[in-house]
Amino acid sequence: MNEFVDLHSHILSGTDDGAQRDEDMFAMLDLAYACGTRHICLTPHFDPYHWPDNHLSADQAFEKLAEYATKYPDLTLYRGNELLFSYDGLEALRDGRCRTLNGTHYVLVEFSPRVSDFEVSSALNRLRSCGYRAIVAHVERYKSLFDRRDCLEELAEKYDARFQVNASTLFGEWGRKAKKFALKALRSSAVVAVVSDAHGTKKRAPDLRKAYAYIAKKRGVREAKRLFYDAPLAILQDKNI
């Protein structure tokens, strides 16, 4: 397989803790393309406490990136946000300041690493009641879920939620326990994507090749294709998964 769909990235310059300059943004895009990614969803953080309304700066950066990306005619860019869940964030989803993934019903949502399982359940229930389908970002960071047997299947069934795992976690970025939970999570069909969560060209780079090879070896090529292409592309097309 030589094409990937990256559902979660921080490539847009000057919007959050990802790319800071246009030169960084362009370099990240070049690297992603060179590594085989052909569909990239740009998901700057939506967190008013740390990055006050970055909607306009994201628009400006996207215009620059879209123009730059014309040199790659087989590359498709999509818009979204990574929402740090809050009730203010729900209002921002309604008025368009916070974007769903490519204008679909799917929302990429994250929580504090210290979030309780009750808070996760409450947030997912609220998103569902508002008509959204949650894709929980880097599920391996939430320690309150580590010891709950079949927790992902339960949350998926109750709240129509799905989950993604960061590629870098498979190689120890968030520690041994996070890696162990990520590998456990990958046995669940509720996990629908492995992503770069790219923030630069070095650490947490937009390169999915190593993670794809790792999962293809452990789980098989068919499952790797589901996680790196089929399911994330279906999300961007607003299809059921």
What descriptors fit this protein?
TIM Barrel; 241 residues; 6-stranded parallel β-sheet; alpha/beta; 3-stranded parallel β-sheet
Structural class: alpha/beta
* Count of structural domains: 1
CATH topology: TIM Barrel
Helical run tally: 8
- Order of strands across the widest beta sheet? 3-5-6-7-8-9
- The CA-CA distance between the termini, in Å, is 21 Å
Task: Give a quick summary of the entry.
With 241 residues, the chain is α/β, with parallel strands linked by helices. The chain has helices at 22-34, 55-68, 87-95, 117-129, 151-159, 176-185, 209-219, 221-236; strands at 4-6, 37-42, 45-46, 76-79, 82-84, 106-110, 133-136, 162-166, 191-195.
Describe this structure in words.
The chain is globular. The strands form 2 sheets. Strands 3-5-6-7-8-9 form a 6-stranded parallel β-sheet. A 3-stranded parallel β-sheet has the order 1-2-4. It is an alpha/beta fold. It has 8 helices and 9 strands. The mean pLDDT is 95.
Topology:
Layout: E1 4-6, H1 22-34, E2 37-42, E3 45-46, H2 55-68, E4 76-79, E5 82-84, H3 87-95, E6 106-110, H4 117-129, E7 133-136, H5 151-159, E8 162-166, H6 176-185, E9 191-195, H7 209-219, H8 221-236
Parallel strand pairs: 1-2, 2-4, 3-5, 5-6, 6-7, 7-8, 8-9
